[in-house]
Amino acid sequence: MRQVEYENLHFLNYPFFDDYRASFNDTLERGWFILGKNVEIFEQQFAKYIGSKYVIGVASGLDALEIPLKCWDFEPRSEIIVPSNTYIATINAIINCGHIPVFVEPDILTYNIDCQKIEEKITSKTRAIMLVHLYGRPCEMNQIMALCQKHNLELVEDCAQSHAATFDGKMTGTFGVGAFSFYPTKNLGALGDAGAIATNDEAFYLKIKAWRNYGSNIKYKNEYIGDNSRLDEIQAGFLTKKLNHLDAITTRKNEIAQYYLENLDKQFILPTVDERILNAYHIFPVRHPERDKLKAYLLENGIKTEIHYPIAPCDQKSIQDWARNAGVAIDEKDFVLSREIHKTELSLPISTIHSDEDIAYVVEMTNKFSI
Ligand SMILES: *Cc1c(COP(=O)(O)O)cnc(C)c1O
Known about the structure:
Blueprint: H1 9-13, H2 17-30, H3 37-50, E1 54-58, H4 61-71, E2 79-83, H5 88-96, E3 100-104, E4 126-132, H6 141-151, E5 154-158, E6 166-167, E7 170-171, E8 177-181, E9 195-199, H7 202-211, H8 233-243, H9 246-263, E10 277-278, E11 284-287, H10 291-300, H11 317-326, H12 336-344, E12 345-348, H13 356-367
Parallel strand pairs: 2-3, 2-4, 4-5, 5-8
Antiparallel strand pairs: 1-9, 6-7, 6-10, 8-9, 11-12
Helix pairs in contact: 2-8, 3-8, 4-5, 9-13
The structure holds pyridoxal-5'-phosphate (PLP).
């Protein structure tokens, strides 16, 4: 029986081993490991790639979400709009900064924040929207930008899953402040933790750049309290090498997605197609009422899948404990569709490690599923 893994970091990185070894040797020989040439080069090349004026490398995707919130200096317990179905990091970032996440339901067709439901959640305490281009699919950026302008809100885009994805030809992370993760499994992944923030505002850029390094742009002169959240030289070197292949990675993922879209049976709810976007397909989500049985059946047939994500944020102990301690009421009505997605979603293999034969086998077996 054919075995299809969901992901495999050895095979994922194998094509880049020579590049990575050369980069590592170069860094080792130079003997400079924090904030040096590699970080500067990566920041410049990534900024150019996404079409942003500035990029600041940081230590993780979570830090990339938190640092802009800290740098805006909102008053404590400001309200930040966030989708009710996302990876927990987006919500944790808001809470870690002392603010209140205000949950908005997703659109059941795109799984992204439902723009029609944002305005009713805006109050005098709302300061920003923190949206997520979930699974690599860009949000409705026209509507989001109009809302931000109308209500004078800042915008953070969680681009942890959407490197190279575009809306109307413009890359995600360049509409508001872009927060990227380079966790090893992401479309642009490092060999450890890494992240970056993108902005077009020079003053904000300088503040973030200082913030990641104890609030200091000049040695031993501290302007802000800041964090230690520096992208390190070794990871920056690897990322610069991998960035050269991001177009090819995105293209291959789109090829696999296209094959799935054309060949998967109608009993599965598939991602909807939209001419205005380029989807990065970090994840290929299908939905089915018997998701758990489908997952078990595929595993019996040698196919590994994932669930993104099994538990809705409102059902997480961490969020419930936080809400109780903070005196915040979580309204389950904001999680009806979110829970539905968490209950029915299954992620099919969509990595550059997969051959056409692997993907054809996934389709063949998935289509044979019957309850
Ligand atoms: C991976 C991920 C993050 C967090 O990134 P880290 O680098 O692991 O901190 C945040 N948001 C989303 C949507 C993610 O998928």
